[in-house]
Amino acid sequence: MTTIRDIAEKSGYSISTISRALNHSGYVSATAQAKIEAIVKELNYVPNAIAQDLSTGSTHNIGVVLPDVNHPFYTQLIKGMLDAAFDSEYHVTFLPSAYDQELERHYLEQLRRKVYDGLIFTSRALALSELATYLQFGPVVVCEDPGSIKIPAVFSYRESAYQAAFAYLKKKGARHIAFTFSRPEPISATSKAVMRAYLKYYCVPADQRNIVAYVNTYQEGYDAAQQFVKDNVMIDYLFANSDDVATGARQYYLDHGLPVPGLVGQEYQVSSMLLNIPTIDHHLDVVGREAFRMVTAQHLATTRLAVQSDFILRQ
Amino acid sequence: MTTIRDIAEKSGYSISTISRALNHSGYVSATAQAKIEAIVKELNYVPNAIAQDLSTGSTHNIGVVLPDVNHPFYTQLIKGMLDAAFDSEYHVTFLPSAYDQELERHYLEQLRRKVYDGLIFTSRALALSELATYLQFGPVVVCEDPGSIKIPAVFSYRESAYQAAFAYLKKKGARHIAFTFSRPEPISATSKAVMRAYLKYYCVPADQRNIVAYVNTYQEGYDAAQQFVKDNVMIDYLFANSDDVATGARQYYLDHGLPVPGLVGQEYQVSSMLLNIPTIDHHLDVVGREAFRMVTAQHLATTRLAVQSDFILRQ
DNA sequence: TTAGCAAATGAAACGGGTTCCATGGCAATA
DNA sequence: TATTGCCATGGAACCCGTTTCATTTGCTAA
């Protein structure tokens, strides 16, 4: 490999001058600049990025911790981040965590170790307060409402969209609503928000049998419906955590000759267009883009940004 | 930041011994090991990864060049790669290219610059021969059949599945088939393979008006159908490049009260389950996984691996 | 002519590890 | 007792840039 010292030797200039010429930092004569550039071209020299990183102390690499790539939630976030990275000078590295605490700690340590210039947590198993202790080593941004914890955050504000959805259901005369969630209520802020909105319009908490958690895919939606039927849960509406889940459930009812409940989906997926069901767009691409911008911003104040979700009633 | 020299100073041992102790490279007494470990813990020391990278010359980072994150093709590939990366010591960085040649060259240069230990090209705008010239700087794996070009490759072998599909269509009595593609025929090997299989069963090349390219999403499928109708193209079957595209097209016909043609999708998406249409599974997660394994393999022979696609006839 | 100053250049330190090689101590073998 | 050889250890080179600071060169103004 050609190094900057090779260029120095061949050109007769010192490595300092070469470095200055390459980085256009000034204090290089036109003669020197031309000569150096010619030799760089001749030897087909490119600076070693690792050496530059060591010298400058930054890698231009942002780590994005995500539990699961399959879920539409993360697919959309990823898209937003990649878009933002595209016209920045940073790269994005995806770090699958599967909600493993040890693994998440490992990634945090990587921040200390300077593997990444910053970290984005799209979801997490660790406590927010633990994440916050790593802020001294570099920017850490989370994609959820951090409440009272002081940590930069970008997240979708779901309350009003959820309320709009339940107002709609109430108006439609829905009485027995079932729910599917990605993660059960105690852990997940999202499911809490849903139940809060539900409570506001229906005044009594939902029966636990009307709730199935760990549902993410079409197939799991299908299975959830099966469970409702098996448990003899009578419902006239299903409030699903994604459009694909909603359509999976629908299929179960169809396959078994049962009446299909009304459906409300989320995430604005193709399947909701197909079935023409209402859905909720959480604009996760925007959340991803802004989280990326925040983590790469020069001055990371303890900012937080809420992106408003939209309830989309088709036709 | 605590450095290895701090540990050396505090422990009374030399940095060589510290390094050996940390890496368990032997030649360290039990006494020294214990003392060093204690001090490492006390000072909460973690080695700087960039310095290690510079010293060892590798970053444990694999770059994955992809034109588009949205397309199911890449979504599935990504999933496979992340799965493989998960239990390896490597990270994955996604490099969006939008089929920009300059950008792709830039990424290749990053390989020379040691930003990545290896590159995977899921698709590309550059000539394979140009990619191959970078093999001297590190492993480069492509996700397509490279033909006579000597470059490591992992790709789906589609011929037999396509043939099965057209055999099925022929048997069903399909006469006028339309096609959608992600990229038009001259560029894309995939579309060439489709047309080859079609020709085998239908003996005459398809009418150009029956082909629409640059179709990837539900909406673009909808638009493609519109174009067929506008061009007065009569079809009894649509051979789409993804299930979502097929369902988008279907919707157009429905929306306009037109008879819906028979559909064949690809990529085994949720929408094909929903509509119960035949599809083709290209097992792109496997392709992604194997590509990742290949690029991180110790000895990168000029290997190639073909993963067989499956025609899936539902029910 | 010379002081004064800016521009151009280079030596060396620095970032923080890994690793080669030399050295010293000590036990087993001849 | 002298030799051999292994183990533990440290010094220093190495990876390859950036940056600080000192020095030299060249020009302008007095």
Automatic annotation (TrEMBL), chains A, B:
Q: Name one GO molecular function term.
A: transcription cis-regulatory region binding
Domain HTH lacI-type positions:
2-56
Annotated protein name in UniProt = Bacterial regulatory s, lacI family protein
Alphabetized PANTHER family for the sequence: CATABOLITE CONTROL PROTEIN B, LACI-RELATED TRANSCRIPTIONAL REPRESSOR
Q: Which InterPro entries match?
A: HTH_LacI, Lambda_DNA-bd_dom_sf, Peripla_BP/Lac1_sug-bd_dom, Peripla_BP_I
Tagged with keyword DNA-binding: yes
Cytoplasm recorded as keyword: no
Keywords, A to Z, come to: DNA-binding, Transcription, Transcription regulation
Q: Matching Pfam families, A to Z?
A: LacI, Peripla_BP_1
